[in-house]
Amino acid sequence: MLGAVETRSVSPVFVGRAGELTALTEALSRATAGEPQALLVAGEAGVGKTRLVEEFRDAACATGAVVALGGCVELGADGLPFAPFSAALRTLRRRMPEELSAAADGHESELARLLPELGDPGFADGGDEDATARLFELTVRLLERLAADRTLVLVLEDLHWADTSTRHLLTYLLRTLRRGRVVVVATYRADDIHRRHPLRPLLAELDRMRTIRRIEVSRFTRTEVHRQLTGILADEPAPGLVDEIFDRSDGNAFFVEELVASRTCGDGVTPLSDSLRDLLLVRVEALPEDAQRVARIVAEGGSTVEHGLLAAVSRLAEDDLIAALRAAVGANLLLAVPDGDGYRFRHSLVREAVSDDLLPGERSRLNRRYAEALEADPGLVRPDERATRLATYWYHAHDPAKALPAVLDASVATRKRHAYAEQLRLLERAMELWDEAPAEVRAGLRPMDYAESYPPCGCDPETTPLRQLDLLAEAAVAARLCGERERALKIGKMALRLLEDDEHDPLRAAWFWTEKAKLQSNLGRGDGWAEISRAQELVKGLPPSAVHATVLAGAAGWGMLRDPGPDSLAAAERAVEYARLVKAEATELNARLTLGTIMVAAGERESGLAEMHAVRERTTALGQFHEAARAHINLVSALESLGRSAEAVELSDAGLELTRARGLAESDGWIRGNKAESLYSLGRWDEARTEAERLLSSATSTKPRGSAHLRLAQIAVARGETATAARHLDEARAVYGTRDPIPQYTLPLAGIDVVAAAAEGRLADVRARLLTAAEGGFPPGTHRYGWPLVLAAVTAEADSRGLPAAEEGRAEALATVRRCVRALAAPAPVWAAHAAQVSEELARAEGRETSGRWAETVDAWTTLDQPYPLARARHRLADALLTEGGRREEATALLRQAHATAVALGARPLREDVELLAARARIPLTADPAAPAPEPEPQADAFGLTPREQDVLRLVAAGRTNRQIAEELFISPKTASVHVSNILAKLGVSGRGEAAAMAHRLHLLDNPR
Fold this sequence. Notes:
This protein has 1009 residues and is mainly α. It has 50 helices and ten strands.
């Protein structure tokens, strides 16, 4: 390595940037106080971003902070996956080895995908969809642990070159970093971010995060250029020179330096060049020939080139190489890399200019030399960079015979690091090279070396050559795992066309059809059944295979969600049988979990739960944590379907511990959504809302986000927040779409929609939703969603009894309720309680309710830990008792219990119902014996309605218009309108229908009991 060399074109004085530096140091102070900070530093190339970051780094180090810097690497057209994070973690390991080892304890193999020095990353399961999220979660937790008792500054430079995996990890870090003394600073070239630049969507997303601050580094003013020139020249510059350089540089700090250098290169003054590229090359052309040659080699080698690799490619004697490097470093063209054995250009603009100046043949020759040197001595570069760099060098050397195997090797390396986006790009490059590579090269490639996504098909992996279909399978899975589902679907279609036109391979075709089914559903293009049916036809009659088991498991999983009946049960049993025959245990466990879930839905409760628990234990023991998390998801849901909500919450907590420990972000969202549902059932609404809101901010897929919106809508409507409920219902509808109606989404959505419509007096919408649900039917296991929906609908009918506007269509609606009741099972006490309440609400709707049957309903709910439906049943029982007369004390106790529950839950509509009934019956809701019984005012009811307003309300409830009300009461239409407006305001409703519904529901027009 070279020592420090004086460089005169760089100003020793830090010029300007006071506001930007203050913003950075203030963020450092807040982070030191325990509040993580994130900042984006943007500016055009050469404006001074790096110098600003260097000044901040020095200031942070002076306070005792640990600074770790990592730069995104531009290697030809490719980026190294996770390059800035790997470099930063490598710095942390060097500076605090014991602390990093302790923080990574137990997760070394996973974190080795970012930092290979931690150990062997091991096998990468191509079917583990949470693998990348797990790596991201572990990385965030590592940084939080390192920053628990020290301030950590993480600087990521040149985001405009960031690979997709780096962008995804950065997004995850900034979204989830919640604790620790951490400052994250990321820089990028603002002028490089064109409309289609891959960084642009990330920047838009980060702009929406209020916790992230953006710092724009602007060009220098003339005064600042004057100060910069004074520092560079160590003397006062002539005014003419300041004007000239300011005009030519336009305030760009780097261009100022280059313009100064261009005037002093060589023995005399060099005229200013007319083009930017020529300006940047002036300094290169003034170097000795060997130094120019070294500069050209470094420019083509990537962002940084190691000394040994540079020596091998340049083929210069060691003394000549050192002399050339010293000249380049002394001219401030190249820099020795800190804490490393290599060189890079001081500014990437110069490297780009030198690289662009190479002739095409010259570029190919240099890349070939790099590749040959690296093949001869792989130790010249870090192991985690070797495969990708070798693939890039051979590709740009335009040698398909060498490039194809190298690109495939690199794709395997990136897969092991869960860098699926980069794996996809490499596989696409391999497909581009496939036809160009010699046949003998392709014949020597083996699937076992490069492809693992497609299940074994009985052929000998050691003798069977790699096929293009293998690459397409790998690429399709890589695209799905990195979130590019559209691309995955396109690749799958390409493979199916190839199978139809040129090859007959039913097993491979069936596998691709199964993959297509998943993508169709995920993209909202359909339910995927047509694709699954096609796959089943293709494997029919073939000997058992892993593909056969996969297809059957897919069919069973489809049925579990959409039609968990006998056919789905049989499909799950066959999938288990086939998977056992071919010893595909992962597929077997997946199918057994599906089987257990369907068994619970079919009424085989205990045996189904036992099967699911067995799968949970086995997958955990095998380290198949993705499937173990799925077992938690399904078990929590099954327990809730049986009314065992407390058990469901306990198991969901265990599942969340697993997902946090293993970084299973998507599974975490599913479990959290199920937990929120059980918390709602238990009457822990504030906790349920917290979980749902947390899920909204962290969900990585659409369906859990829809679940969060549903739960928030359910809580909002129960609390009388109809506008909030409507907003969340709209969001849930948008998330779920209409092309793949899955009952576990559509029925709860309809149920909550019915409650919201009833609260607003939209009885026609209530009836329409019920009729749609009845026509769609209630498959086995969907009783958990059907009973609440039917209960909400029949309650709305009972509340509107006697309302003239509701009479038309009432008989049909009640007939629909009875049809739904006959279709719904009640396999657990919680659903038996629902059935009892539906039955008595139906009786109330027909004017034949009795306190005895309401007492049975209350008894059914009392044995369950569900306070809200119990309180509603108590309110109805109290109402029936007061109507029948003679049991006032019992009614008083029931109303007080219901009122206490409503207050505790924040259930405003229920609280108002109870309070109105108590007020009209002159029952005190407090147990204080000294409290006087409330007396109704003679001129107003509990809402303060005057007698005239009560008359108007009766007519509104009868469906009269303002003009009809005016005629009947001998008042003007304008006066009638004023009365209606006052009534709506006093009742706190937004429309006439809602007012009419409330009047009937609360007996506002009845005589006091």
